[in-house]
Structure formats: structure tokens, C-alpha cells
């Protein structure tokens, strides 16, 4: 359904839904400015609503940015959570009032993700378009991120079955698998753009989808009848790393430092 909501209350709901409230206030402020910018970007781009969203300019899922009402946030946490945390959320939004991110005077699309794995991605390495403010940058302070490293184990038979469900003509078996998989192109951010399986080019994004992986920074380790898929990072890797922002805040960087690090050559503008 489509609802109408107060601008500021919406931003508070996004910050509380998209970033752990336990994060440093400077990281939360960075998320607040990002949320405000993203909202205005969508409103400007889709003034008559987005066709996928029942005529609304944006949705409340990860497709756009996650939003929950204050009531649902309290219900999913506790009254104590509200008493201890909501003031921090309000500070993140209110202390950055009116601030948005612009590039050459135009409002940006400020993409963000959970954990880059050490370096963010150039936009064209993940999506189709090169965007001047979405450049690959170092993200060195992510060591506390819970999904920085992950692995899943799968039988060789299941691995082959999943690949063949999408690529039926692959001539692969347990005996020839290791020689049939070749690394293709790797992005500046260290994520896999393409691999070759039995000579067929498959994008890293397709592999991520097929095996439900945390990111496209992955490797395969075969041991007997089992394959371990090891991943680094979580999310698409473009724009601001939320755990990187938290790490920078913990090192004493302010929210403007964080935003200017992850969004190349942007400026801060103020709206009324």
C-alpha cells in the first residue's frame, strides 16, 4: 500500500532501520545525510511515482532504503531500546538538518552497503553506468564487521546441480571441475566481475545469486566431495560502507569526513 509520512519522521525510521543504533553518532549522522539525499533524489527522479511502487517514489525495502515506523521499531525491540536509543536517532537526523550531498551542484544518488571488504567498488563494475562520485576507495576500518568474512560448504554434486540449473550445457563433473573453472576479470575493488566455467562466461553477480552469497568477492575451495565458498564483504560494495563508516567514526573522523571519503568530490548543500 501507499502511505504519506512526515519527511523528518521518515528519515528517523530509515536511520534506525538501516544502521545499528549502537554505532557511533558520527556514523549515524552520515547515514542520516545519506538517507535525506536518497529520499530527495528519488522524489526528483520520480515526481509522479515509480512504476514498481504503486505510484510512490520509493519503497520501504532494500530495493530503495529500509524504513520502519517508530511503533514497529519499538515493537521489534523494546520500550527500553526506545528510551535509550531514540534520542540518538533524533540527534543523527536533527543535527544534520537540511544537509544533502551534491556533485557539481546536482543531488547525488548516494548508494551504500554493509561491508566493502577493504575497498569499495567503481559503479560501472557493479551496475552499468560510470558515476563520477561512486569511485573505488579504500575502506580500511571494517575489522569489527560481523560479515566481513563468511563461508558456506556445499557438496560437489549440489554445486554442479546449481550451476547447471542456470547453464544447462555445461560439461562439468566432480572429476574435471577444478580444471573447468577459470578466473576472468577482477574489479578494482577486488570483487569478481567474471569467471569462466567450461568456457562459458558467468558474471560474479550471477554466481552470487546462484549460491546466495554475501558478495562477489568469493573463492572456491574443493576438498574431496565438498566445496567451500569463501566470501569477503557484504552487499554490492558501491558507495558508503556502513561498517567502514562506523570504523572511521571510531577513529575520530566526523560524519563529513566519512561522506567525503566514500563519495568522491562531493559537496554538502543545505536545503530549507
Describe this structure in words.
The protein has two domains: 7-112 and 240-270, no CATH class; 149-232, no CATH class. The mean pLDDT is 91. It has 272 residues and is an alpha+beta fold. The protein has a three-stranded antiparallel sheet with strand order 2-1-11. A three-stranded antiparallel sheet has the order 4-9-8. A hairpin with a 2-residue loop joins strand 8 (218-223) and strand 9 (226-232). The protein contains ten helices and eleven strands.
Q: What can be said about this structure in brief?
A:
The protein is an alpha+beta fold. It is built from 10 helices and 11 strands.
Tell me the overall shape: elongated
Strand segment count: 11
**How helix-rich are the residues, as a percent range?**
25-40%
Q: Tell me, rounded to a whole number, the average pLDDT.
A: 91
**Uncertain ranges:** none
Termini gap: 29 Å
State the helix count. 10
Percentage of residues in strands: 15-25%
* N-to-C order of helices and strands: HHHHEEEHEHHEEEHEEEHHE
Radius of gyration: 21 Å
- SS-based class: alpha+beta
Largest sheet: 3 strands, antiparallel
Q: Enumerate the strands of the largest sheet in spatial order, edge to edge or round the barrel.
A: 2-1-11
Total domains: 2
List the helices and strands and how they pair.
Blueprint: H1 7-18, H2 25-45, H3 70-76, H4 79-94, E1 99-103, E2 106-107, E3 112-113, H5 123-126, E4 149-155, H6 156-166, H7 177-180, E5 181-183, E6 194-197, E7 200-203, H8 204-211, E8 218-223, E9 226-232, E10 240-241, H9 242-250, H10 255-262, E11 267-270
Parallel strand pairs: 3-10
Antiparallel strand pairs: 1-2, 1-11, 4-9, 5-6, 6-7, 8-9
Amino acid at each position: 500500500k501507499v502511505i504519506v509520512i512526515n519527511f523528518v519522521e521518515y528519515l528517523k525510521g530509515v536511520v534506525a532501520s538501516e544502521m545499528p543504533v549502537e554505532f557511533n553518532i558520527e556514523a549515524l549522522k552520515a547515514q542520516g545525510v545519506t538517507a535525506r539525499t536518497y529520499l530527495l533524489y528519488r522524489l526528483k527522479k520520480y515526481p509522479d511515482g515509480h512504476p514498481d511502487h504503486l505510484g510512490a517514489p520509493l519503497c520501504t525495502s532494500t530495493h530503495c532504503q529500509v524504513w520502519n515506523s517508530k511503533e514497529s521499531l519499538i515493537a521489534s525491540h523494546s520500550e527500553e531500546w526506545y528510551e535509550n536509543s531514540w534520542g540518538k536517532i533524533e540527534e543523527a537526523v536533527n543535527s544534520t538538518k537540511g544537509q544533502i550531498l551534491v556533485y557539481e551542484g546536482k543531488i547525488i544518488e548516494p548508494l551504500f552497503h554493509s561491508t566493502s571488504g577493504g575497498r569499495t567498488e567503481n559503479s560501472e563494475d557493479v551496475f552499468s553506468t560510470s558515476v563520477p562520485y561512486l569511485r573505488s576507495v579504500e575502506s580500511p576500518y571494517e575489522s569489527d564487521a560481523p560479515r566481513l568474512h563468511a563461508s558456506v560448504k556445499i557438496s560437489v554434486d549440489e554445486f554442479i546441480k546449481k550451476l547447471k540449473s542456470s547453464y544447462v550445457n555445461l560439461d562439468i563433473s566432480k572429476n574435471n571441475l577444478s580444471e573447468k573453472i577459470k578466473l576472468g576479470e577482477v574489479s578494482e575493488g577486488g570483487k569478481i566481475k567474471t569467471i569462466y566455467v567450461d568456457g562459458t562466461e558467468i558474471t560474479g553477480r550471477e554466481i552470487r545469486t546462484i549460491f546466495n552469497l554475501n558478495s562477489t568477492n568469493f573463492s572456491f575451495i574443493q576438498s574431496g566431495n565438498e566445496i567451500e565458498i569463501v566470501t569477503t564483504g557484504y552487499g554490492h560494495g558501491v558507495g558508503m560502507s556502513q561498517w567502514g563508516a562506523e570504523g572511521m567514526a571510531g577513529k575520530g573522523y566526523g560524519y563529513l569526513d566519512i561522506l567525503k571519503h566514500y563519495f568522491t568530490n562531493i559537496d554538502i548543500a543545505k536545503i530549507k
